[in-house]
Write a structure and sequence with these properties.
The two termini are 34 Å apart. The protein is built from ten helices and 15 strands. Helix 5 links the parallel strand 6 and strand 7. Strands 6, 7, 8, 9, 10, 11, 12, 13, 14 and 15 form a ten-stranded mixed sheet that branches. It has a five-stranded antiparallel sheet with strand order 2-3-1-4-5. With 347 residues, it is of the alpha+beta class. Bound molecules: S-adenosylmethionine. S-adenosylmethionine binds next to helix 5 and strand 7.
Length: 347
């Protein structure tokens, strides 16, 4: 049996639901392990809560890599004997970070999506897809805000693309990323190019970065990572990016609270319903998504029920993932936000 100790920060954010979210995330991850996992449950050892994986065989280094990346993982133990107290042996975790994880924690601003929750969405997207952490992944956040999802993607060494309708957020995100690369002495090229529009007045631009951890890595073009920020409308995603070019689409939809909903499709109430946004954008998102790729979106389930969103994905021929693990993510954020995630696959 393996026991995972949860990051204490995670507990503070979601209170009681932290354990349930962790069980859901690890249940999805367990399907990707090389050894069978009989059950995932919450256990108490000497007054401390752990997530237990009932596995009789030895985990492979790749398996440990998957568990090391889980959003809540603080430490992993192998448990010998009948009682946990008999012996908990710590398992060395994989050090996988391409850019340091602090890239997504140092910024604080209104409307920021919690970084551990974001990491969890990225993991769920990857684990539910046909791809692995070793693939040369490109992730798109179609509602990027100031970039928490993109930052989490850079920690994994994924290429990251973002679309954000508000100019100010794109501007601040671009400045932050450039400063970050400079401060960390990464080698990079920064560019701004037009990705769409007939003339300058209706042009849509992308801030583009090509970077590597150091000069040596930057020399080999295939070693370079990309980050692109488009100041545009997500419903035109297929006009900004190539078809079948993105492995994962991950985003935290607007809640209509900290962020206003700007743009042509703003509803009369000023709070765009997530169904409306998904309905408008999904054809373009599907067009850029590769076969075997996934879409993971977080939204306020007080505003729209999951089955309504699921119907929109199914209409577009995407498979909505369901079952205990996929249906165990709903949790209260505050009095007016009950957050959930929906996971759909391009089969
Ligand atoms: C909840 S916020 C995302 C916050 C982000 N995860 C972060 O931590 O910075 C949702 C974002 O979606 C943007 N948005 C809303 N409609 C959009 C559209 N049609 N295209 C692109 N972005 C849009 C909003 O401006 C807002 O910044």
């Amino acid at each position: 049996m393996y026991l995972i100790l949860q990051n204490p920060g995670h507990n503070r954010v979601y209170y009681k639901e932290a354990a349930q979210l962790a069980v859901s995330e690890v249940s999805i991850a367990s399907k990707r392990l090389s050894v069978p996992c009989k059950a995932v449950e919450v256990v108490n050892v000497a007054g401390v809560r752990y997530i237990a994986l009932k596995i009789e065989d030895e985990l492979s280094p790749k398996d440990v890599g998957i568990l090391s990346r889980l959003s809540f993982t603080f430490a992993i133990f192998n448990q010998f004997g009948i009682y946990a107290e008999d012996g908990l042996v710590p398992i060395p975790m994989e050090t996988y970070e391409y850019l340091d994880g602090k890239i997504s924690t140092i910024q604080k601003y209104a409307g920021k999506t919690n970084e551990l929750f974001t990491k969890m969405m990225v993991n769920v997207a990857l684990l539910a897809s046909d791809f692995s952490y070793d693939d040369n992944i490109t992730l798109l956040d179609p509602v990027a805000g100031r970039g928490t999802t993109l930052n989490e993607a850079t920690v994994y060494g994924f290429n990251a693309l973002g679309i954000e309708i508000e100019h100010k957020s794109v501007h601040e995100n671009q400045i932050f990323f450039k400063k970050y690369l400079q401060n960390e002495r990464c080698k990079f090229l920064a560019d701004k190019r037009m990705v769409y529009g007939k003339n300058k007045s209706e042009a849509i631009y992308m801030h583009e970065f090509e970077y590597a951890k150091n000069k040596e890595a930057f020399k080999a073009k295939e070693e370079r990572k990309k980050l692109g920020l488009v100041n545009g409308n997500s419903q035109d995603a297929d006009k900004y990016f190539k078809k079948n070019s993105v492995h994962l689409i991950v985003g935290d939809l607007p809640y209509g609270i900290a962020h206003g909903n700007t743009g042509a499709n703003k509803s009369s109430t000023g709070t765009r319903n997530p169904s409306e946004l998904i309905k408008t954008c999904l054809p373009a998102w599907k067009a850029v998504l590769k076969k075997g790729g996934t879409i993971v979106l977080a939204w306020n389930s007080f505003v729209a029920p999951k089955h309504k969103l699921a119907a929109l994905f199914e209409e577009q021929g995407l498979k909505v993932m369901s079952g205990d693990a996929y249906d165990g993510f709903e949790h209260m954020v505050d009095k007016s936000i009950k957050r959930d995630i929906i996971v759909a696959k391009n089969i």
